[in-house]
Each structure stands twice: as structure tokens, then as C-alpha cells.
Design a protein that fits this description.
homodimer; alpha+beta; SH3 type barrels; six-stranded antiparallel beta sheet; two-stranded antiparallel ribbon; 16% strand; DNA-binding; transcription (chains A, B); DNA binding (chains A, B); DNA-binding transcription factor activity (chains A, B); DtxR_MntR_Metal-Reg (chains A, B); transcription regulation (chains A, B)
Chain lengths: 232, 232
DNA sequence: CTTTTACTTTAGACACGTCTAATCCGGGGC
DNA sequence: GCCCCGGATTAGACGTGTCTAAAGTAAAAG
């Protein structure tokens, strides 16, 4: 019987592990979950006791296989819900996150099954994030690179945008940066800001943290030649 | 900011008030919510402090108007969810209760609105229970009488069956006692057991607590004359 | 009018998840 | 090789919701 809170810790640690190599530090977790470091310390002790994380004092934690499974289960719930809300309840993809963040802890396995069925077993959510499949095997995230790691001139297709802040998402949507869109990278500033040209001719600059959280797939350059974009 | 638990108490007290005149005693609540009486005492103190119930020590509690409003909000969530799960996620009406009991505390107002819209503002849930409308005015429950208060020989149409125990509901469904069905009352035993004849010719005996929780509407007797039922 | 009894409340404990304040490592700079 | 500083942990507290055991009360039975 894991509490909602424990599930949130495991999900958070999983996401942090996707972003950076384990071990994940106390303060990273505290930051991500918006609690104080002592709170994290006591929680990770508990998770360690239960065998959900491997903890080394003063170093940080790493999810065990069991911890990963729980995290994937929660993530599956979250992303299925996001997809369902978008497809069947007419939510916009920029506003589903909070609802899913709560409900993910409260739906039954039966509910999960029926939602997956109603959606015909989707593999990605509306933000482009992969939905772990029912057997909870770790999804493989190859081929997707970070927007921030490409050279100017490269043309890429957006595959995933992070689903954290509703504000940000609305902004990205307005700028037409959504999964499936093809953009050309115009400039990468020394402080990490990336400027891209969208197919409608607009340009958009994105600070490092954002550019880092957007995953893309490289596209053959001539694929967008029909929609050429001006240089400046 | 009411906790889930407080919402459960308020909903429970509301339902108990529908069944019996207030004040509602500590032990009735304890029984209904499956907690011990001291737990109830401390909780109702808190609810009293917040103005959600009127409490008289050693007597019991009664919901204030504000308490009623909260209870209706929760009940609206519950019943909309039951209806939604049945209509759009292919649940059977005998299995929706538990899912709704959890989710009712966790859906946003936005979610409520969209579900109501998807269902075209339904007025009753799959068990026949009235869904409070969005303005949370107390639903009026006239015309519905208890199955247990009718004379043998009377013909009635089932309008509501309680939604408490999945087991019971499945049993009732198998016996064809569902909202909309017309039955004739064959016998009322001195210990409260009611025997009814269903239109397919079967008969069904129901113990007092069940017969008490089933609400019915009286029907003109000749309405079922085409499907006459044997005496014994 | 007193006693009994059923129910309610008080007292005190515990698990959970959180906090602040204080202490404690451990690795980088000197 | 020592010190310092930033981050981590311990200590101790609190609010919530629950429990068991003990004490109290009200109303029915005698």
C-alpha cells in the first residue's frame, strides 16, 4: 500500500533520472516536488526501507527495479488520463496536466484498462511523451534528442514537449511549437538560448531550460524546402 | 479547504438524514463510515467548528445549509461519475460505485462541467438516484416512496436502488430489479421482508433493509395486466 | 427515585507527511 | 593537510485522522 505521496516521489525521481544520471540528490527532489530537504530525507529513508530506491547517505538515491515499475505505473496513468481528457472530454493539451496529476493516484486498474481501450492503446500522450505499456517495461527513448543539442541550420520535428507548467505549454502552443511541428534551428546563443523558425515564418527564442526539455527528431533538410524560411 | 475525509462525513450525514430524521447520532455515523465512535466525535467537533454541522452533545448532528451544499457537491460528483462510467466507459451499473466513491473527491470543477456536458446534463444516475444540479439546490424527492411501505397487491415501478454494496446490486440486477422495472408486491412479512413478482414471472424476496432502500412509484394496476403472475 | 445499560465523550497514543532550527559531512580551495 | 561552505541529516514539533481504554451521561427499567 503506497501512499499518493510515495507515488509522487517515485514518479518524480523517475523523471529526474531521465534528465540526469543517478544518483538523484535530496535537493533535486526537494526542488522538483516543492518540499524541504529534511522532508525528502525522511521520505527516501522510507522508500529505501521498502526497497523502492537504493539510497546512499549524503549521495542520493536511485530507483530499484520495483521503484521503476511503480513510477511507470503512475506515469502510465498520468499520460493515459492526459490523452483521454484531450480526446474525449475536449480538454486542450495545455490544461490536462494538473487534472491528471491528481487523478493518476486514484483510478483503479479497471479504469486504466477501460481508458486505454477507449483510446485504442495509445503510445504517446498529447505532449508527445511516451505512455508506458500495460506490462510496464521501461519505454525506450532513443532517436529523441534534445532541442538544445542541435546545431543552427538543422531542421527537426518536435516530438515531445515537457508537461510541467500550464503557462509554458500555452505559450508553446501559441508559438506553434507542438508535437509534430517541423522547425529549423536558427541560432544557439552561448547562454543556451535556442531560436527556431517555425514553418509559418515566425521565429521563437527559447531559454535553455525549455529548449532542454523539448525532444526532437532530426529531419532531412529538403523535407521542408517547400516552406522555406527567411534568414533574419 | 475540506479534506476528503470531511467530505465523506458530510456526504454520509446527508444520506443518513435522507433515511431518518436528524439529529444523526454518533454511532449511526460511525456505523455508516466504518470508523469507531470516538473518531466520529472528534470529527463532528471539527465540522461543528467550521459551521458545517449543528452539533448538540450526546444528541447528534444535523447539517447546516453550508454542510448540505458541500454534501450535494460531492453527491453530484459521485453520481455524474457513475453515469459517465456507465455510459462512456462501458462499466456495468453494479460496479461503478467504488470507483466513483474515490474519484468524487479528486475531480476539478472543470472536469465536473465537462462530464455533465458529455452526458447532456443528466438528472439521475444509473441507480436512479437524482443528480443534484449545478447550482446545488436540494433535489426534491417527492413521489418516490419506499418499496417497504406498500401493501401486497400494489404494482409499482422501481425508481431508485441504493448504491452501496456491489454484491447486492449485482444480485438485484440478476433478479431484474433495476430502475424502470415494474413489479407487483406479493407479500409483506411481519419481519419486514417484501416479496415481489417481476414481469418475467419470477419472484424475489427482499429483507427489510433492502426493501427500505428501494424507492418506487405507484403504477395503475391494469398497466401490467398483460403479464399476469401466478399467486404462489 | 434509583439503578442499569447503552451510547457518548475524554484521555492518550500512534502513523503520516510536513515544517524549522540545529548539527553534521565531505569535497574544493588554499 | 586544513578549513570552509553548501548541501544533507538529525532533532523536535505540529496537524490530521485514526485507534483503544476509561470515564461520563441520559434515559429506560425497575
Amino acid at each position: 500500500m503506497l501512499s499518493d505521496v510515495m507515488e509522487d516521489y517515485l514518479k518524480g525521481i523517475y523523471i529526474l533520472q531521465e534528465r540526469a544520471e543517478p544518483p538523484i540528490s535530496t535537493s533535486q527532489i526537494a526542488d522538483y516536488l516543492d518540499v524541504t530537504p529534511p522532508t525528502v530525507t525522511s521520505m527516501v529513508e522510507k522508500l529505501d526501507d521498502r526497497g523502492l530506491v537504493e539510497r546512499e547517505k549524503y549521495k542520493g538515491v536511485e530507483l530499484t527495479d520495483e521503484g521503476v515499475t511503480v513510477a511507470l505505473e503512475v506515469l502510465r496513468h498520468h499520460r493515459l488520463l492526459e490523452a483521454y481528457l484531450t480526446e474525449h472530454l475536449d480538454y486542450d493539451w495545455s490544461e490536462v496536466h494538473e487534472e491528471a496529476d491528481v487523478l493518476e493516484h486514484h483510478i483503479s486498474e479497471e479504469f486504466e484498462r477501460r481508458v486505454a481501450e477507449a483510446l485504442d492503446d495509445p503510445t504517446v500522450d498529447p505532449h508527445g511523451d511516451p505512455i508506458p505499456n500495460a506490462d510496464l517495461s521501461p519505454p525506450d527513448d532513443a532517436e529523441h534528442t534534445r532541442l538544445s543539442e542541435h546545431e543552427p541550420g538543422t531542421t527537426v520535428e518536435i516530438s515531445r514537449v515537457s508537461d510541467r507548467e500550464e503557462e509554458e505549454l500555452r505559450y508553446l502552443k501559441d508559438a506553434n511549437i507542438t508535437p509534430g511541428t517541423v522547425v529549423r534551428i536558427v541560432d544557439v546563443a552561448p547562454f543556451g538560448m535556442v531560436t527556431v523558425a517555425v514553418s509559418d515564418g515566425g521565429r521563437q527564442s527559447l531559454p535553455e531550460e525549455i529548449a532542454d526539455s523539448i525532444r526532437v527528431k532530426r529531419v532531412e533538410t529538403d523535407a521542408v524546402s517547400a516552406e522555406e524560411v527567411p534568414e533574419a
